[in-house]
Design a protein that fits this description.
The protein is α+β, with helices and mostly antiparallel strands. The chain has one domain: Protein of unknown function DUF1054 (BirA Bifunctional Protein, domain 2). 42% of the residues lie in helices and 13% in strands. It has eight helices and five strands. The protein has a five-stranded antiparallel beta sheet. It is globular, with a radius of gyration of 19 Å. The model has no long low-confidence stretch (mean pLDDT 94).
Length: 230
């Protein structure tokens, strides 16, 4: 039977959304550990087992993939200590400490979100991806147009520039792709999916469909600069 979450897990997340403070959480931490953290790690393990076949460079121990429920509030005006979701992020081996392309999902009080791509790449990465797309835009478009991917996920249309990025021509045949500041696909599933034994299967099939796109986005980020001969 596939890993899934209980109604008590959803009840905890709803309560946390209303009572986002340390005392409330501390009193109920055993519930969080049992109903959310343990199933989350098991679910990631289930997804990992499948990803060995189509994205092995993204497989790491579940504890490394699970995202902390604690918010980083050091530089934020919002001082709520906890996130209102549980989530996982599958970074590519060698890009864990950067914003390369990867696979993501979260579960909150309203939905199950499954996504893949590169989000807010660093400046050098953004330039590298754009230069790569100039030469590979046809292949990238073909990947995005794949029937399986289009049936399962939608292309993100957010974070577009209003004018061509510096150094790129408005007449470039890849200009629509170059105007993006991030590239990815996502799917929003009903919250009930989180409590169904097919949860892992639905995440896996979307990750698998998006894997060629993720691989292309990471290709220019994995190229090591050549050392000077002298």
């Amino acid at each position: 039977m596939g890993t899934h979450f209980s109604s008590d897990a959803m009840k905890f997340l709803r309560g946390l959304k209303r009572n986002n403070d340390r005392d409330w959480f501390a009193e109920r931490k055993p519930i969080y550990e049992r109903e959310l953290k343990e199933p989350l790690l098991a679910l990631i393990g289930e997804v990992n087992d499948a990803m060995v076949d189509f994205a092995p460079q993204h497989v790491r121990p579940p504890q490394k993939i699970a995202m902390r429920i604690y918010r980083d509030i050091r530089f934020s005006k919002d001082k709520r200590p906890y996130k209102n979701n549980v989530a996982g992020w599958w970074a590519r081996d060698g890009l864990q400490k950067t914003s390369g392309a990867g696979f993501y999902f979260h579960i909150n009080t309203a939905e199950v979100m499954v996504a893949a791509g590169v989000y807010m790449p660093e400046r050098e990465q953004l330039l590298a991806i754009r230069r790569y797309l100039v030469d590979h835009h046809k292949e990238f478009r073909a990947v995005l147009a794949a029937k399986k991917l289009r049936s399962l996920m939608q292309e993100s249309d957010a974070a577009r520039l209003t004018r061509p990025p510096k150094g790129f021509s408005a007449d470039d045949p890849a200009i629509d792709l170059l105007m993006c500041r991030q590239w990815g696909v996502s799917a929003t599933l009903p919250l009930e999916t989180a409590m169904d034994a097919t949860l892992g299967k639905k995440i896996i099939e979307r990750f698998k469909a998006a894997a060629p796109m993720v691989e292309m986005l990471n290709a220019p980020l994995l190229v090591k600069p050549k050392r000077p001969m002298f």
